[in-house]
Amino acid sequence: MVTFFMVSHFLTKKEAKAAHQVNIQEEEVNGIVFEGLSNIQTVKFLQMQSSILSIFNEKLEVLFNRIRYHIFYFRFRVGMVNLCGESFRVGIAGFIIWGIFNDRYEVGFLVLFLGYFDRIWDSLEVLSDVTNEFIVSKYSISRIIDILNEPIRIVSVQGKQSFPRNWKTMDVKDLTFRYDQHEVLKGVSFSIKRGEKVGIVGLSGEGKSTIFKLLLKQREEFGGQILFDDTPLESIDKSDYLRYIAVVLEHTELFNLSLEQNILLASPNEFSKDRLEKALRIANLSGFLHKFPQGIKTSIGEKGIKLSGGEKRFFRF
Asked: Which stretches make up the ABC transmembrane type-1 domain (predicted)?
């Protein structure tokens, strides 16, 4: 039995690693399929079919090779484990038969041994399969360990204060920020008065999006200060702060829900018919609702596929 567990454990780890590689490659193949279907219009208009299919076939070939390795290790493990078990069975049965011929054992002892061995063997096979599944799951879980160990960037809400609703000036003083070792912002300072319209212009990668990420409290490990009057941004409760902030993102993710449900996702508890109609009117969405068979209740499809590019831009607002 000790030999069985040693052989089974060693070969199970090999098979589990092969299964883990299959899972990783399956994710890559599924990712290519998902991205191709999600951007089907771009693929068609720019005639990317052949390039996408070429990449897909390359990843699919890698997947098939890894599946072959997995099948090989699976069969090899089963074969070696069965060989150990049958060798033990034949060896002990031969020894008992030898004892029977030498009047040391009765025939019933042989029957008893074979019956108990079959029962124990069935249990060991089940235990081996469960162990294999456990090891494969352990490899899968290990892939998210880095995410689980990632330190929390936004500190606890304890001790935070409400957003000052009557603020007059927002001051950014000597703002610095870096991604790991790459410095993005260094000594940025400016002031914006309430009601003032300001545009930030710069080359790609110069930190424009990073400034807005910091203003949206997505990251707090920055140097310098962001003040609303005399209140530091990092001392303000995030949930309360975001209630008074509106943002039009560069890329808006739309869900396979109705127009109304997509609009209300961000603030379902603050719904009112008047507010909804006002939002539709301000964003100029009410002008094309009549084109949809169920109006605002119409499902817009996955990633808003039923909307035109212009309609999606209006939807961002």
From this structure: 1-134
Is 265 inside a domain boundary? yes
At position 212, the amino acid (one-letter code) is F
CA gap 86, 149 in Å, rounded: 46
* Domain presence at residue 252: no
Torsion of CA 273, 276, 281, 283, to 10 degrees: 180
Query: Tens digit of pLDDT for each residue in 244-291?
Result: 887 777 767 777 788 777 777 766 666 677 777 787 787 777 777 777
Same domain, 293 and 231: no
Same domain as 81, residue 185: no
In the chain, what are the helix, strand and coil shares in percent, each to the nearest 5?
A: 60, 10, 30
Distance, first Cα to last Cα, the chain: 68
In this prediction, residue 173 carries a pLDDT of 92
The torsion angle over the Cα atoms of residues 140, 141, 147 and 152, rounded to 10 degrees, is 170
Same domain for 207 and 69: no
Residue 48 in domain: yes
Q: Which domain holds residue 292?
A: 259-316
Q: What is the 3-state secondary structure (H, E, C) of 47-84?
A: CCHHHHHHHHHHHHHHHHHHHHHHHHHHHHHHHHHHHH
The burial of 202, by beta-carbon neighbours within 10 Å (0-12 exposed, 13-18 middle, 19 or more buried), is given as exposed
Number of domains in the chain: 3
Q: Is residue 210 located within the same domain as residue 117?
A: no
How many CA atoms within 13 Å lie on the side-chain side of 6?
Answer: 4
Q: Is 19 in contact with 131 (CB distance < 8 Å)?
A: no
Sign of the CA dihedral running 179, 180, 183, 188: positive
State the pTM of this model.
0.53
Residue 125: CB atoms within 10 A of its CB come to 15
